[in-house]
Design goal:
The complex is a heterodimer.
Chain A lengths: L9 H11 L21 H15 L5 H6 L3 H10 L6
Chain B lengths: L2 H14 L3 H7 E3 L5 H12 L7 H8 L8 E7 L2 E14 L4 E12 L8 H12 L2 E4 L4 H10 L1 E2 L3 E7 L3 H6 L4 H22 L7 E6 L5 H5 L11 E2 L3 H9 L6 E8 L2 E10 L7 E9 L6 H16 L5 E6 L2 H8 L4 E6 L3 E4 L1 H7 L9 H4 L4
Helix pairs in contact in B: 1-2, 1-5, 11-12
Classes of the chains: A mainly alpha, B alpha+beta.
């Protein structure tokens, strides 16, 4: 999805995910299953969606959300939207 | 609409490919015609849970004429993808009474899980009611509920044993030893009850009945509305619906009289089918002027004494406020465990009073989904 906001790095995106999912800094890695992250609940999803919208102007469709299984799937979705710098 | 809710609604609406207005309008009170679809959705979400058998759902969430049950649904592409079973509540604060809602079972269609719908429906209730009460029924929902609501008073499990037989059998004691110890324990257990027993003084009496027919005398007493503590108010209509018409359980009703005036009550449920099963103290209250340890002990003593004479194994209760807790302990109940309690949200102008744990007087019925 096109966006007028500034792209971010993978590290920044991971920090953003940690913040929204209530995880400690450095606790979330790219290969982690989202189901293993305690904060990956209904509210965590909403907060992450809101933050991606705020920071990147990016919307995650319900179809994309349904396919998210690992942290790397979120990173790939951001990458496919052209919003990742690395 | 608060800015935070507008922001959250915007992203959820966008993910579903609809506008914010369409999303807000899609979350509404269910109609009678939604009953089958909601049953199906709850079955998908919870499986064959006894608390959600179709007849229980019909009574608990679709008996709209009782004004005690409520159901909200989220419609999307001609189907119901989310539902929140609820109870309208009236919360008594110091000098005010506030309408609110107790969110019960909340379910999202499996194809739409992990999309933020469950949290959004809770937030939507917070937009529409000044007080929202919730429970975290499983690990996932508890995490979500903790983020949206304030965790309130812990629940303390208490129990009074009348016989040690089941207790020992459950712990794998041999039948012979269990029988011997059970016989030996009869006297000490009776002694403990005797020590804690409070004889009703002259002018007081307790009647044990099968229904709440006399409850209007209690709830229509002007004293019931006097300021005392934060409570989830009951009404005779609510108790009739909750206890007399309950399709899942049957209850014994203890009417507490002072000078021939119905001044309090307790509700007890038998948990099992056999005579000597565990009983559960579900609900209790006294007029605010009598809501103190002396009168609660009289009420609880009456209940303990009656249940003991039913050849019950034990009487359990969950208490969440210090007055009830201390009164139960002084009535012979022993402490077993502590766990998370219920969760609350209140709009900012009343949140200081509503979210103050010490102000609450609560019963098992307030803090648990058990029916």
């Amino acid at each position: 999805m096109p966006s007028s906001k500034e792209p971010i790095s993978t590290g920044e995106l991971l920090a953003l995910i940690e913040q929204q999912l209530n995880a400690e800094a450095g606790a979330i890695t790219i290969d982690m299953a989202l189901a293993d992250i305690k904060g990956w609940d209904s509210m965590g999803v909403l907060l992450l969606m809101a933050e991606l919208d705020d920071r990147l102007g990016m919307t995650l469709s319900s179809e994309v959300l349904a396919e998210l299984k690992h942290v790397k799937d979120i990173i790939n979705a951001v990458k496919e939207a052209g919003l990742l710098t690395d | 609409m608060t800015p935070a809710f507008a922001k959250i609604s915007k992203v959820l609406a966008a993910s579903l490919g609809i506008t914010i207005d369409e999303l807000i309008k899609s979350f509404e009170r269910a109609e009678k015609a939604d009953y089958s679809a909601v049953c199906e959705l709850m079955h998908l979400g919870f499986g064959d849970a006894g608390n959600l058998a179709p007849e229980v759902i019909a009574w608990r969430y679709f008996d709209f004429s009782s004004h005690c049950s409520d159901m909200f649904v989220l419609r999307y592409q001609n189907q119901i993808i989310g539902a929140v079973g609820a109870e309208p509540i009236r919360v008594k604060l110091d000098h005010a009474e506030v309408e609110g809602i107790r969110a019960g079972d909340i379910v999202v269609h499996p194809e739409h899980m992990r999309q933020g719908i469950g949290a959004w429906m809770n937030l939507c209730l917070q937009e529409n009611f000044p007080v929202v009460m919730a429970m975290g029924s499983n690990e996932n929902s508890t995490t979500m509920v903790r983020r949206i609501f304030k965790p309130m008073n812990c629940r303390h499990h208490l129990k009074i044993l009348f016989s040690t037989q089941r207790y020992l059998e459950f712990r794998g004691w041999s039948p012979l030893l269990t029988k011997a110890v059970t016989l030996l324990a009869v006297l000490p257990l009776a002694l403990v009850r005797y020590v804690f027993f409070k004889m009703l003084p002259r002018g007081y009496r307790i009647e044990v009945v099968d229904n709440t027919d006399n409850f209007p005398d209690f709830f229509n007493n002007p004293d019931y509305r006097q300021p005392h503590a934060n409570i989830v108010m009951r009404s005779a209509q609510y108790c009739r619906w909750r206890y007399d018409l309950n399709p899942k359980s049957s209850f014994k009703v203890f009417e507490f009289y002072k000078k021939n005036q119905l001044s309090g009550y307790a509700i007890v449920k038998k948990n099992g089918r056999e005579a000597n099963d565990d009983w559960q103290l579900m609900d209790w209250d006294l007029l605010p002027s009598l809501r103190n340890q002396k009168h609660l002990r009289l009420l609880f003593s009456g209940v303990v004494n009656w249940v003991a004479h039913q050849h019950a194994e034990s009487l359990s209760v969950m208490a969440s406020d210090s007055l009830s807790l201390e009164s139960l302990v002084h009535s012979g109940f022993s402490h077993r465990a502590v766990e998370d309690g219920f969760y609350l949200w209140a709009q900012p102008d009343i949140s200081t009073t509503v979210l103050d744990e010490k102000r609450w007087f609560l019963t098992f019925c307030d803090t648990d989904e058990a029916l």
